[in-house]
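Exercise 7. Given the encoded structure of a 356-residue chain, write a plausible sequence.
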């Protein structure tokens, strides 16, 4: 070939070929495949570890017939749950089993067994039930596969999250995504605010309420509880640390003890001059709009129109703050309630009672 001749390779492409760039592209494609394979392995291994513990929780309730007759008929509802002790204790949502007269659980291996409620807490939407397994040939009951509980305090935004449910009883449904946000608040159906809720884009299928939210190691990090219907891909789970605390109290007492002072109230802004004069940490408080007779608030001398700004020196900026501070530790204990009455700051002694 003489100098100045054009090679066939040059004629077939407007740019000269670079073998090094081809190698880079090939390695990049292989790296992408490796990453996808690693992601798939993480999801599948977590599912294999957890799915044997995921159950369908079926609730049977008597309802009135729509035909106009007085004959009762049985309605069905339910959700999912997961076994957290080998002897058959199951965590699920309170709204799934609350006031359920009859509960049936479908296990991963296809067996069905009755269950009963140990306790449920509507304020956190957590419930503990126990499955009543029949005796085996040895006179005992079979041990169930229990999940490993993680630590929701160690979670990070962007971390892989896998939602597992068992709405049909024989196969798990799985969705995967990431943790979108931490420390969210969610209003429970009892009216209280649930704190430290996990927001994820792992979609919840119908019947997945009460199922586990797990990490890539197959550890349960949350209890799936709700989805925002108008929004796309916004789902919530109760942090597993909250579920551990509530579950332990339900096992011990059958319920969660909380205190109350006997007022109806609402959140209101406080005049800026009052905030500056008393150097209040918050610009809102809780105004008392009603007081129950023979209640701790009545005995403490609280009046309608008083604005509660602190309980035991802890700021109260709204009704949710007051709910959060009125725990079982305050039952029967003398507490200092700081209020603004007109423009005067007062400290009242109050003894909260256990909420019924």
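Solution.
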């Amino acid at each position: 070939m003489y100098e100045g001749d054009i090679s066939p390779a040059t004629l077939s492409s407007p740019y000269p070929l670079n073998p090094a760039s081809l190698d880079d592209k090939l390695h990049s494609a292989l790296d992408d495949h490796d990453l996808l394979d690693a992601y798939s392995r993480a999801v599948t291994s977590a599912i294999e570890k957890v799915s044997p513990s995921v159950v369908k929780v079926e609730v049977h309730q008597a309802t009135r017939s729509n035909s106009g007759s007085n004959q009762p008929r049985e309605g069905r509802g339910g959700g999912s749950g997961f076994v957290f002790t080998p002897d058959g204790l199951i965590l699920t949502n309170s709204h799934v089993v609350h006031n359920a007269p009859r509960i049936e659980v479908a296990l991963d291996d296809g067996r069905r067994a009755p269950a009963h409620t140990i306790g449920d807490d509507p304020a956190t939407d957590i419930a503990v039930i126990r499955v009543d397994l029949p005796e085996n040939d040895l006179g005992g009951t079979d041990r169930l596969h229990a999940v490993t509980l993680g630590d929701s305090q160690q979670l990070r935004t962007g971390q892989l999250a896998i939602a597992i449910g068992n709405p049909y009883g024989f196969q798990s449904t799985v969705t995967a995504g990431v943790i979108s946000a931490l420390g969210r608040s969610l209003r429970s159906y009892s009216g209280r605010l649930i704190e430290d809720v996990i927001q994820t884009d792992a979609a919840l299928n119908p019947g997945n309420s009460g199922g586990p939210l797990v990490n890539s190691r197959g550890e349960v990090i949350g209890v799936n509880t709700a989805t925002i219907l108008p929004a796309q891909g916004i789902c919530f789970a109760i942090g597993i640390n909250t579920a551990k605390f509530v579950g332990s109290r339900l096992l011990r007492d059958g319920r969660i003890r909380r205190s109350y002072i006997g007022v109806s109230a609402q959140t209101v802004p406080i005049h800026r001059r009052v905030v500056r004069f008393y150097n209040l940490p918050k610009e809102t408080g809780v105004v008392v709009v009603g007081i129950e007779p023979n209640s701790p608030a009545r005995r403490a001398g609280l009046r309608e129109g008083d604005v509660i700004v602190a309980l035991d020196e802890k700021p109260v900026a709204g009704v949710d703050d007051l709910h959060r501070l009125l725990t079982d530790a305050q039952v029967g204990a003398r507490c200092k309630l700081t209020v603004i009455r007109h423009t005067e700051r007062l400290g009242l002694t109050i003894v909260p009672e256990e909420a019924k």
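Remark. Confidence is low (pLDDT under 50) at residues 1-15. Students should compare their own answers with the one above.
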